[in-house]
Structure formats: structure tokens, C-alpha cells
């Protein structure tokens, strides 16, 4: 099976869906002629032309708002926001409009749109090219939020997101673009939204995570396995809706739970997962539910020691794991 | 027909207004929608239109008066026979989907048969309030007995909650190591484990889930001592003294530390008494015929099995048959009602040197007298040897106590929770009794008594049960029995 | 600033029947609107936001569209637009009385949040000017598919200060989208006058900044509005890109039923506006040209009243939504 990088998988996901469905278009800054500032849309302009790969003005609200209108009128637009940090001007269109259009029209209209944006730190991008803002969107009924951690999931989830009849926010970790490689089948496949994946089996501790942190968790779990602690690592993949069955199942089976994320800890996805575990798995818990996330500072300061202070890594995760294992 | 006009709400958050001027006097004709009064609020000034054509009736409010929203201000004598109020109530649409329980009521709404989410898979969108929002447990919940009642137990009843994790990621401290997490308590219950037997490997000496599982594994492989209590096992007893008032130990007294077994028995007996209001009935059973059968079959039974045939199987068989006919004696008192157990799993109270255990014959009603006899023999032998399996100590639905084997003639037993009753057979003693026709005969008499939970059964039910057992024993068909 | 005169009617291709239809739509809108205010003053409609004074502009412009084919992203004052496109007084009364059968939103939204899939009226929320981008998107989709459908959006002059208005015009001009953007300028954004909203004389002046044509029309003259809209629609259908149309109209009522405009609008101004009420103007013009015979106007009004009376009876008898229905239609699978 061919091995692809995370960004290649994303590019191919878009390309294959655009070949399959002529309603799929891509729009955003620099996505056309340049092929995207990270090259995520490289080659699409040549293959599909300027009517389907649209270089937009520098106006995030318009990128999303126009995509909404196009989706209402029968297209399947993929709107790219150049950095998740710059999604803020589009939040009104995402939250006030896209999320609510089906509900406010009582099912008459829907918005089958995907908004893609690279997120996450570790690339010396400093405060406005490194944030993890996904939690705020996970709070909004009417939206779906997806964060793949492998090339396979990146392609499969993107294809599902494009086919989804509702607005999906698809966040790709920019560090993972070229760092993470994996096998991706050539033939058509999708990964369903709303389902987590167990990427490491174990019964002693359940670790829930997503994005770049998932592979760090696996590394940390491997490190403590030698001491007799067998951890399960569950990649959430879809942050809204969360896979409650997978979360509750793993938590009940293991009894010890650690939730790990790169984003700031307070009021986050990890907070929600921890609350679910505490509420649904209380009788099975053998330790307090623990979370691990970014410190309460904007993500991520520029100078390398500051960036390292912010970012999680396998060693930091391993330390927390050992605390939990020893409890 | 008179309509009542009320003060409208003019503008959100407006609660009152001033009726500044009447535009129509009583008796004056009024068109539908024609203005009848001027009203002033702090947000808007407006004219109030008439709800119907007719004549102005009575002014209920004077000019200049401050009127609350909803307060009646006047009546209109309606020309076109409207109803009593100017604002008809709207009805609420029937719920879109017929909930299963409503059967044929059907859906009136335009949504048709849309599922309101009652059967939806667990998902955030269903919301906390919607039915079906709890995720289905991926595995069955543990076979827990009905919840333990809130017994007026000693003060240390609840384990101290674990210290909450502070905002900074510091290690939580479990205190002095005596607290038990929900997982540990659940496992101990499930496996009938006395937690005082386990040393904890967790922080501060805490017993962890792993510790319990390893203990159970060792025990099952024979390394651990025999289980200490009958199923369902009570929760772990507390390390600190259970009695509320300290007992004075004098210098020449000898303090015998509580064994795990003794502790467990103590806990169970206290709990049983506090759970079930115990009542007690007794019958006298003429065991003469049974004795004859036993005498006739004893030798062949010994030749076949190598064991002695006691009276126990006979009584056990009668008890089991009676339980089939009186299901409320084979039951448990649950939160939602009395649970009538399907299986008859007969526990036989067995006294060991320093322990009391109750091995269980599962589905005893399916065994013949011979089968029962063999099973009883086997169980009691292995009980004495400490070689019973966990499942043989669990799941009992009724208990029979052969107290008479020890010589007593009348005993009052304590119910084995969470069962409905415990039956005691005391010693069989030859006694003179008065028969039909006032003849006196010497018969083998046995007192058979029943301690029962008065929540589940009244004296009537208990007495009928015992009478059935008595009739079965006294009417035993000597010719039909072949062991 | 060109102001079309009504005598130019023959050049627009509008015959007498069309002009009568135009007048009838204006009357229907006015009668329905007046009834909504009555319901509010009776305490039965908690919120009303009116189109009185805008009818000529809305009817004239909407009649240049192909209902159910072209796309429309209106704003809250566009009651007359929706009636021309095919919505009914019953549709609006169901929304006003918050009934379950309201086609706009199932009464999930306040009244005057129009939406109708069947007529390609894009559902709108309460954040103003967001609809401009949605109309751009609908126009984009038509263009991508090679269709000649156009998208029309309308907004008040106050909303032209919102970022989405500017982003929308810019995007539409750059990508030559078949968009008609209508600014219904009645001079007040609630209480804030145009002079505090923009430093330009007209809202249409903005169009130049985005490289697209901007036209000002007399919003009290439905035929002039029709002509301007028809031109813009034809340009758009031919792939010549967007147009901004500014219609100067009068707001004959306060901003909404929660507003009292005596604080900021002089009574003489209002009196003058009422004297030049576009319904009166158009009726006079049509009667002068014998498009309306004596008594026709009264009959049209009476018929509109009957239509509204009947619709109100039906709306009053309609049920409210079931409480649990609040959970439906968050996602497609609900």
C-alpha cells in the first residue's frame, strides 16, 4: 500500500472528491494558482480550473459566507481559511449562519460546506499561527468538528466531511503536514464522522487524545509499558459529535483515564471528555479523571524555550501517565 | 355576547401602561379594528383597536389610570357573537412522533413519523434532557444485587472521597490509604472479596483495582483461603472498629482479633436485621414416614455413593417443591418491586469450625431426591475441605438450615440477604402425640420454622408455605421413592 | 441622479395588466402590514417590523425577477418582495402568531425572518448584512453551473456599514457574479440618520469603490424601480456582473413595534412622507392614465382585506409547535 504524508492525503482527498462530484469546489486565499501556502491544494487549479478552484479576496467572512450561499444553491464548497488563527472574522458566518441555517429554516435549507484550516503549534509560528481554537466550535449545535491524526484518517474523514449534508470544520495540524506519514489506500474509502479509533490496545489506563498529540500519547504509553502498565490510546478523530460509546467503553474497562490535548486546558475538549467520563463511568473509576493540556497562555510564544514550555511532548505525557499509573 | 378587552403588551419588557383617553363611550357603536382607547407606556404610545364590531360596553378603568398588562379594561357588546375573550387560546400541536407507549394516538403534526431522538445513538446533540441520551453500556453492568439500604451503619460508613485534583497537574493524594474507589468497591462486591485481606499497592497503601483482580486470581487458583461470606457478598468492612460504643477490655480479658470471616458474618447479620423486619412462624412436622423411607433406602444409598443418607435431602426436596408453589418466598425486595426469582437456587447453611458458609445448589428444583442427596453430600464435603468454587457461593434464592444436626429443637435464624426467608429444620425427636380419634402414638417430630422478611410476605404466605412443606413431608409416598 | 418618471412605463414593457398587478401587490403588502400592527396593538403579536413606505421599491424590483428560479436573500423589511415572489399573508401570519406550520422557520425565528426553499428565498438570521455574502454564494453557484439565474439581496442603508456588505460587493465585482444588491434607503437605521452612517451622499456611491455600477432610483416610483432592476438583472444574466441599486424610500412607521420615533424624527418630516405615500402616488398616476378605473382601488383594497381576514382566521386556528419539536433539525439526520 502506498505511503503518503498527511498533507498529500488531504490534497488527494479533495482531488478525489472533486473528480467524483462536480459540485465540489475549493475557495480561499492563494488556493488556486499558488496551490495554497502549504501546498494543500497544489495541482487542483490545473486539473479543475478557475471556476472550481477560486482565489478569493482577503476576506474571511466572505470566504465562508459565499461558501454558505453556494452550498445553499447546490454546490459542495470547501472553504479554506489560511490559518485557524484567522478564522475569527468568519465566526459570525460559521456560528450565526452556517450552524443555524438548518434549524432556523426548520429543515428547509442545509449547508453542506467544509471549512478547512491548519491549526497547532511547534512550527515557530508564534501567537497567530499556532493556536488550537477547536473547542469554541465544539460548543455549537449544528456544527461538526473533525481533527484527523493520521494520513489515512485525514483522507477518509475529509471525504466524509465533504459528503456530509451539514457544515463540518476540518482542522489539520500544520506540523503533521510533512511530519506524519502513513499508508493510504488508492481505492476509494471513507472514515465515518463521529467515531473514535483505538490506536493502541490496553486495559490499565485509557488515554483520549486527538491531532498531533495522539502519536505522542502512543509513544508515552509504549514507554511505560515496560513497567507493566498497559495503556489504551483512543484517537477521538471527531470532536463534535464525540464518540460517547468509545469513550465510555474504554473508560469503564480501564478505570483510569487521562485526556491529552495541545490546546489550552480550561473549558476545552478535554474538559468535556472528562465530564462525560465522570458522569457515566463513576462506578468504574479507580482514580480521578485527569487531563493534560496547554498552559493558560496564548499558543504559542515564538522563542524556542517559550515554545517548548507550551508544547506537550511524549516525555511530559509520560510523566503524567506515571502519576496516574501509580495512583 | 360581551367580550372583555385586556391591556395588551406594547413592547417587550413592558409590564404596564397608562390609559390616557377613552375614544369610545359606553353604548357607542364600534367597528372591528377601530381604535377604542389611547394608551401610553414608557416605550410606545398606541391606540388599542377593537377586537370585534358592536357597541362599547362598560369601562372598567378610568382615564389616567395605570393598568397592568393583561388587566381587563372594558367590555364590547359583540354584534357577531364572538367568544368570551378577545384572544382565543391557541392549541399546541400533538407531538410529532408517536412515542411507543402511546400506541394508536398517532401523529398530527406535519412532521409525520420523525423520531424525536428517543432511540438515537448517544450523541451530544440529543441533549441532556432528551430520552435516550445516556450511552448504552458497552458491557453489562455488574450483576449487582439490589442496592444495599442505607443502614444505620457506623459513622465510617462511606469511604472518604478521593482528594479532588487541583487545577495545576499535581498528584491527588488518597489520604491514609483506607479509601476505596468505586471500581474497587464494585469488584469486591462482585467477587465476594474481603478487602481487609488485601494489601494495597497504590499511593499511600491504597487498594487498587489491580490489587483486587490479582487477589481474586490467586484465590481462584487455590492459593487463597475459602471465601468468607455467602453470596451476594457484603462490601468490604472497615478497618476501624465498627461498634459505635467502645467495649472496655479488662486486664484479664482476652482480646480475640476478628478474623475476616467473623467480621463478615458480623456485618452481614447486623445488616440483615436492619434490612428485613424479621417475623417467625413454626410448624411441627411428623417425620415418621420419612424416617421409614430413609431407613429402607439407607443401605443401598451408602453402597452406591459411599455416603450416609440424612434427612436433609428429604426436607430440601419438599422445600424446593413448596417454593415453586409459593414464589413470593423465593424472592427479593427491590427498589421497584418484589423480584420473583425464576430459578430456585437452594443454599444450605453449613457450619464450619469458625465460619458459616452457604453453598448453593443451583436450579435445585430440577434435581430428583437422589440428585439432591448426592449434591448435598458433595457440597458439604467440599465446604468442609474449603474447596468450593465462587459460583457455588453465589446466587442463592432461599436458604435451608439443618440446625437439628447439632441437636437443637427450636431455632430462629437470620435471613440471608437479599432473600425473602430462611427455613430451619431442627432435630427430629420421638414424642408422644395425639392422633385422629384421640389415640396417643409415638412419632418422630421435627420443628420446622421460617424466619421471613415481613416486607415481602405476611404471616399468611409464610404459614401456607410451611404447611405445604409439612404436607409434602408427611404425605411422602413410601412406595414411589427409590434412591 | 436619474429619477424615472412614471410616464416612461411603455419603454419598460409593462402593460396595463402588469401595472395593475404591481398596484395590487403594493396594496396587499400595505393591508397585511397594517393588520400586523393591529395584532401588535391588541397584544397578540409581540413583534412587528414594517415595510410601509417601501412597497413601491420592493414590488417594482421583485417583479423583475423570475420567482423560484432566481435566488433572493431579503432582509426583515422585505414583506412586499416576498408577496411578489409568491409567499402569502397566511405564511406571514403563521409566523407572526408563532404557529407550527410557519413555512419560514416553524416559528423558531421571530417574525420577518423570511425563508422559503420552494421560492429560493434564502433563510435569514438577525445579524444584518450576512445575507449579502449568501446571495454572492448563490450567484457563484449559478455561474459555476453555467446557469443564467441571478441572486438578489436587499438591505437597509444602515447595514451598508457592516463588513459583510463590503466583502460581498468586492467579491461579487472581482468574480463578476450575477448579483443585484438593493439598498432600501429610508434615511434611518432605527434612530441613526444616514449622515451618521456614511460620509457619502448616496449609498450607491460605494459601488464605484468596488468597481461595479451603482444606480440611484426614486423608491416611491415602482416603475422606475422595475426598470432599474430589469436592467441589472439582464446585465447579470448576460454575465456582465453585479449592480448596486439604491432605492430612496420612506419609512412610514417607527423601526419596529418596540420603537418610538418621535424622539428622533420630526413630525413634519413624517407628515410629508405620508403625504407622498407611494401607494397614493401610484394610484393617482394609474387613475390618471385609466389603468385603474374609479372604484378599482377600493375594490383592490377590499379584496386584500378579505384575503387577510381569511388568512388570519386560518392562522388563529392553527396549532402551536409541540415542545419536543424544538430538538428537530439541528442536523440533517435529526
Task: List the main descriptive attributes of the protein structure presented here.
heterotrimer; A: alpha/beta; Rossmann fold; 2 domains; C: 334 residues; alpha/beta; 11 helices; 9% strand; globular; disordered N terminus
Q: State the helix count of chain B.
A: 7
Examine the coordinates and then state which fold CATH places here, giving the name of the CATH topology of the largest domain in chain B.
Chloramphenicol Acetyltransferase
Q: Work out the count of structural domains of chain B.
A: 3
How many independent structural domains of chain A? 2
Examine the secondary-structure arrangement and name the CATH architecture of the largest domain in chain A: 3-Layer(aba) Sandwich
The coarse overall form of chain B would be elongated
Percentage of residues in DSSP E strands of chain A: 15-25%
Distance between the termini of chain A: 42 Å
Distance between the termini of chain B: 94 Å
Any guess at the CATH architecture of the largest domain in chain B?
A: 2-Layer Sandwich
Structural class by sheet pairing and helices of chain B: alpha+beta
Strand content of chain B: 15-25%
- The strand line-up of the biggest sheet of chain A is 3-2-4-5-7-6-12
Q: Sketch the major β-sheet of chain A.
A: 7 strands, mixed
Largest interchain contact: A-C, 44 and 47 residues
- Here the CATH topology of the largest domain in chain A equals Rossmann fold
| CATH level 4 superfamily of the largest domain in chain A | Thiamin diphosphate (ThDP)-binding fold, Pyr/PP domains
Class by SSE composition of chain A: alpha/beta
Instruction: Sketch the topology of chain B as an H/E string, one letter per element.
Output: EEEEEEEEHHHEHHEEEEEHEEEH
Q: Report the C-alpha radius of gyration of chain A, rounded.
A: 19 Å
Q: Could you outline the blueprint of secondary structure elements for this entry?
A:
The complex is a heterotrimer of chains A (327), B (483) and C (334).
Chain A: E1 3-5, H1 6-20, E2 24-28, H2 44-48, E3 53-55, H3 60-72, E4 76-80, H4 91-104, E5 114-119, H5 134-138, E6 144-146, H6 151-163, E7 168-173, H7 176-179, E8 181-183, E9 197-200, E10 205-209, H8 212-225, E11 231-235, E12 238-240, H9 244-254, E13 257-264, H10 269-280, E14 290-294, H11 304-310, H12 314-326
Parallel strand pairs in A: 2-3, 2-4, 4-5, 5-7, 6-7, 10-11, 10-13, 13-14
Antiparallel strand pairs in A: 1-8, 6-12, 9-11
Helix pairs in contact in A: 1-6, 3-4, 8-12, 9-10
Chain B: E1 2-6, E2 16-22, E3 29-30, E4 35-40, E5 45-49, E6 54-59, E7 66-68, E8 72-78, H1 182-191, H2 209-220, H3 260-275, E9 278-286, H4 288-305, H5 312-325, E10 331-333, E11 338-340, E12 346-352, E13 355-357, E14 360-361, H6 369-385, E15 398-401, E16 421-434, E17 440-453, H7 459-474
Parallel strand pairs in B: 12-15, 15-16
Antiparallel strand pairs in B: 1-8, 2-4, 2-7, 3-6, 4-5, 6-8, 9-17, 10-11, 12-13, 12-14, 16-17
Chain C: H1 16-41, H2 55-62, E1 71-73, H3 79-85, H4 89-96, H5 130-144, E2 151-156, H6 163-174, E3 179-185, E4 188-189, E5 192-193, H7 205-210, E6 214-218, H8 222-237, E7 243-248, H9 267-275, H10 278-288, H11 296-317
Parallel strand pairs in C: 1-2, 2-3, 3-7, 6-7
Antiparallel strand pairs in C: 4-5
Amino acid at each position: 500500500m502506498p505511503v503518503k504524508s498527511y498533507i498529500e492525503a488531504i490534497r488527494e482527498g479533495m482531488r478525489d472528491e472533486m473528480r467524483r462530484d462536480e459540485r465540489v469546489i475549493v475557495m480561499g486565499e492563494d488556493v488556486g494558482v499558488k496551490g495554497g501556502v502549504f501546498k494543500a491544494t497544489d495541482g487542483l487549479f490545473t486539473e479543475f480550473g478557475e471556476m472550481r478552484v477560486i482565489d478569493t479576496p482577503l476576506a474571511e467572512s466572505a470566504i465562508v459566507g459565499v461558501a454558505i450561499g453556494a452550498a445553499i444553491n447546490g454546490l459542495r464548497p470547501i472553504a479554506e481559511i489560511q490559518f485557524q488563527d484567522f478564522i475569527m472574522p468568519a465566526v459570525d458566518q460559521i456560528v450565526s449562519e452556517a450552524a443555524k441555517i438548518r434549524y432556523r429554516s426548520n429543515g428547509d435549507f442545509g449547508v453542506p460546506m467544509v471549512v478547512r484550516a491548519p491549526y497547532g503549534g511547534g512550527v515557530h509560528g508564534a501567537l497567530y499561527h499556532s493556536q488550537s481554537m477547536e473547542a469554541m466550535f465544539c460548543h455549537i449545535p449544528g456544527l461538526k468538528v473533525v481533527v484527523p491524526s493520521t494520513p489515512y484518517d485525514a483522507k477518509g474523514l475529509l471525504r466524509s466531511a465533504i459528503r456530509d449534508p451539514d457544515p463540518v470544520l476540518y482542522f489539520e495540524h500544520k506540523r503533521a503536514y510533512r511530519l506524519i506519514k502513513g499508508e493510504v489506500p488508492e481505492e476509494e474509502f471513507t472514515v465515518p464522522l463521529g467515531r473514535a479509533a483505538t490506536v493502541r490496545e490496553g486495559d490499565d489506563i485509557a488515554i483520549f487524545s486527538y491531532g498531533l498529540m495522539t502519536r505522542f500519547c502512543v509513544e508515552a504509553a509504549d514507554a511505560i509499558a515496560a513497567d507493566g502498565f498497559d495503556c489504551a490510546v483512543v484517537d477521538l478523530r471527531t470532536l463534535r459529535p464525540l464518540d460517547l460509546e468509545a469513550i465510555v467503553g474504554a473508560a469503564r474497562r480501564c478505570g483510569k483515564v487521562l485526556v491529552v490535548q495541545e490546546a489550552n486546558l480550561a473549558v476545552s475538549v478535554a474538559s468535556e471528555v472528562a465530564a462525560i467520563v465522570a458522569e457515566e463511568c463513576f462506578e468504574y473509576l479507580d482514580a480521578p479523571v485527569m487531563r493534560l493540556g496547554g498552559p493558560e497562555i496564548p499558543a504559542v510564544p515564538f522563542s524556542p524555550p517559550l515554545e517548548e514550555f507550551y508544547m506537550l511532548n511524549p516525555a511530559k505525557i509520560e510523566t503524567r501517565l506515571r502519576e496516574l499509573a501509580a495512583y | 355576547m360581551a367580550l372583555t378587552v385586556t391591556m395588551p403588551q406594547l413592547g417587550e419588557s413592558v409590564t404596564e401602561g397608562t390609559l390616557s383617553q377613552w375614544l369610545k363611550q359606553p353604548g357607542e357603536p364600534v367597528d372591528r379594528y377601530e381604535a377604542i382607547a389611547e394608551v401610553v407606556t414608557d416605550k410606545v404610545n398606541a391606540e388599542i383597536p377593537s377586537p370585534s364590531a358592536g357597541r362599547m360596553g362598560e369601562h372598567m378603568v378610568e382615564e389616567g389610570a395605570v393598568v397592568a398588562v393583561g388587566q381587563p379594561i372594558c367590555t364590547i357588546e359583540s354584534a357577531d357573537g364572538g367568544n368570551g375573550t378577545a384572544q382565543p387560546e391557541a392549541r399546541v400541536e400533538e407531538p410529532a412522533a408517536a412515542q411507543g407507549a402511546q400506541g394508536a394516538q398517532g401523529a398530527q403534526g406535519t412532521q409525520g413519523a420523525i423520531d424525536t431522538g428517543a432511540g438515537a445513538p448517544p450523541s451530544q446533540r440529543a441533549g441532556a434532557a432528551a430520552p435516550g441520551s445516556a450511552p448504552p453500556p458497552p458491557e453489562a453492568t455488574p450483576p449487582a444485587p439490589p442496592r444495599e439500604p442505607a443502614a444505620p451503619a457506623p459513622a465510617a460508613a462511606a469511604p472518604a472521597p478521593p482528594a479532588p485534583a487541583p487545577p495545576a497537574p499535581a498528584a491527588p493524594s488518597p489520604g491514609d490509604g483506607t479509601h476505596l474507589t468505586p471500581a474497587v468497591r464494585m469488584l469486591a462486591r462482585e467477587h465476594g472479596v474481603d478487602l481487609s485481606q488485601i494489601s494495597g499497592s497504590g499511593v499511600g497503601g491504597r487498594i487498587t483495582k489491580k490489587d483486587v483482580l490479582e487477589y481474586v486470581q490467586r484465590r481462584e487458583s487455590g492459593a487463597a483461603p475459602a471465601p468468607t461470606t455467602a453470596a451476594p457478598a457484603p462490601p468490604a468492612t472497615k478497618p476501624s472498629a465498627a461498634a459505635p460504643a467502645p467495649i472496655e477490655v479488662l486486664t484479664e480479658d482476652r482480646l480475640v482479633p476478628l478474623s475476616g470471616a467473623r467480621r463478615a458474618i458480623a456485618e452481614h447479620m447486623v445488616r440483615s436485621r436492619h434490612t428485613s423486619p424479621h417475623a417467625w412462624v413454626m410448624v411441627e412436622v411428623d417425620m415418621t414416614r420419612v424416617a421409614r423411607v430413609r431407613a429402607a433406602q439407607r443401605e443401598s444409598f451408602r453402597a452406591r455413593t459411599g455416603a450416609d443418607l440424612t434427612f436433609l435431602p428429604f426436607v430440601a426436596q419438599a422445600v424446593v417443591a413448596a417454593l415453586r408453589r409459593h414464589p413470593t418466598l423465593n424472592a427479593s425486595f427491590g427498589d421497584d418491586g418484589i423480584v420473583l426469582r425464576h430459578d430456585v437456587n437452594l443454599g444450605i447453611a453449613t457450619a464450619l469450625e469458625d465460619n458459616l458458609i452457604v453453598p448453593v445448589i443451583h436450579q435445585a428444583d430440577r434435581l430428583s431426591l437422589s440428585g439432591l442427596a448426592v449434591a448435598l453430600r458433595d457440597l458439604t464435603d467440599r465446604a468442609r475441605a474449603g474447596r468450593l468454587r465462587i459460583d457455588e457461593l453465589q446466587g442463592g434464592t432461599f436458604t435451608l438450615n439443618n440446625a437439628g444436626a447439632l441437636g437443637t429443637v427450636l431455632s430462629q435464624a437470620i435471613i440471608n440477604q437479599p432473600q425473602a426467608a430462611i427455613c430451619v429444620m431442627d432435630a427430629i425427636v420421638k414424642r408422644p402425640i395425639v392422633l385422629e380419634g384421640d389415640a396417643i402414638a409415638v412419632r418422630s417430630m421435627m420443628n420446622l420454622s421460617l424466619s421471613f422478611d415481613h416486607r415481602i410476605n405476611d404471616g399468611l404466605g409464610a404459614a401456607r408455605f410451611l404447611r405445604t412443606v409439612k404436607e409434602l413431608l408427611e404425605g411422602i409416598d413410601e412406595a414411589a421413592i427409590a434412591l | 441622479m436619474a429619477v424615472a418618471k412614471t410616464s416612461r412605463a411603455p419603454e419598460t414593457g409593462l402593460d396595463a395588466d402588469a401595472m395593475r398587478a404591481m398596484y395590487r401587490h403594493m396594496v396587499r403588502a400595505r393591508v397585511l402590514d397594517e393588520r400586523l400592527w393591529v395584532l401588535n396593538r391588541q397584544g397578540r403579536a409581540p413583534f412587528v417590523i414594517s415595510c410601509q413606505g417601501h412597497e413601491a421599491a420592493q414590488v417594482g424590483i421583485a417583479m423583475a425577477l423570475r420567482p423560484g428560479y432566481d435566488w433572493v436573500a431579503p432582509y426583515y423589511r422585505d414583506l412586499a418582495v416576498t408577496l411578489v415572489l409568491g409567499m402569502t399573508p397566511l405564511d406571514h401570519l403563521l409566523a407572526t402568531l408563532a404557529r407550527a406550520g410557519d413555512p419560514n422557520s416553524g416559528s423558531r425565528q421571530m417574525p420577518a425572518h423570511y425563508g422559503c426553499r420552494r421560492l429560493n428565498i434564502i433563510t435569514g438570521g438577525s445579524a444584518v448584512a450576512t445575507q449579502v455574502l449568501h446571495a454572492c454564494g448563490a450567484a457563484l453557484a449559478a455561474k459555476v453551473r453555467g446557469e443564467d439565474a441571478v441572486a438578489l439581496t436587499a438591505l437597509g442603508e444602515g447595514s451598508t456599514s457592516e463588513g459583510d456588505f463590503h466583502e460581498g460587493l468586492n467579491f461579487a465585482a472581482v468574480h463578476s457574479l450575477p448579483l443585484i444588491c438593493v439598498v432600501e434607503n429610508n434615511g434611518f437605521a432605527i434612530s441613526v440618520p444616514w449622515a451618521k452612517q456614511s460620509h457619502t451622499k448616496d449609498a450607491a456611491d460605494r459601488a464605484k469603490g468596488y468597481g461595479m455600477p451603482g444606480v440611484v432610483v426614486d423608491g416611491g416610483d415602482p416603475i422606475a424601480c422595475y426598470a432599474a432592476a430589469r436592467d441589472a438583472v439582464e446585465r447579470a444574466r448576460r454575465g456582465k456582473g453585479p449592480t448596486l441599486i439604491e432605492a430612496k424610500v420612506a419609512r412610514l412607521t417607527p423601526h419596529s413595534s418596540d420603537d418610538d420615533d418621535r424622539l428622533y424624527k420630526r413630525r413634519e418630516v413624517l407628515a410629508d412622507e405620508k403625504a407622498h405615500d407611494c401607494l397614493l402616488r401610484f394610484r393617482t398616476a394609474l387613475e390618471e392614465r385609466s389603468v385603474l378605473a374609479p372604484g378599482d382601488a377600493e375594490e383592490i383594497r377590499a379584496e386584500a382585506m378579505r384575503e387577510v381576514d381569511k388568512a388570519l382566521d386560518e392562522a388563529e386556528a392553527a396549532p402551536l409547535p409541540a415542545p419536543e419539536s424544538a430538538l428537530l433539525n439541528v442536523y440533517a439526520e435529526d
